[in-house]
Amino acid sequence: MTGMVEGNVEGNEPFRRRGAGSLRTAVLAALVEQPAHGYELTNRLNRRMGPVLQTDYRRVYEVLEQLEKEGLAHSVEEQALGASHRRRRVFSATPLGRRTHAGWFREREPVPLVRADIYALIAFSDPEQAPQLLAKLDEYEIDCMEMQERAIEADVERASWRSRMLNVTRAAVSEQLQGELRWITRVRREIEEYLLQAR
Fold it and tell me: What's the whole-model pTM score?
């Protein structure tokens, strides 16, 4: 898709339509907060977002390059601190990127479900696939429990805006994961009851 921002002052609609996802949203929001190079940005995202969005440098750099192509970010080469022979690219949000970020507060979009893929596998399954579904549920349950452990970190001091928002984000993730764990139990029970009745 080219001409991403043509005819769109805010530039946010095409940005979202591309299946941007949470990582793109988080990267641009972090750049609006303050410029950064990819390594520092990845660490900041992982610290701030916790289990909500764990990522790696490669994926962050891919997003940064895409944002730059779309005119939402730009970069400049700077000398790395303490390493005169090394240069690094520091990215920052462009005016269009800042308008796009601001536009997200005004728009409404469907909230994505956590794991729509597993929901689809279950919704379109046959009884013969019950063993595979139970195995998938076991994997998903382990993933949810591991994320739940990371989400229940000790609350940080509530003095600052950032720490309060971090706490409520972790609480939201924790509550969503608890709901997913209850749902997994229900699906497992439904499968097992059906298999018992079908004997």
Answer: 0.63
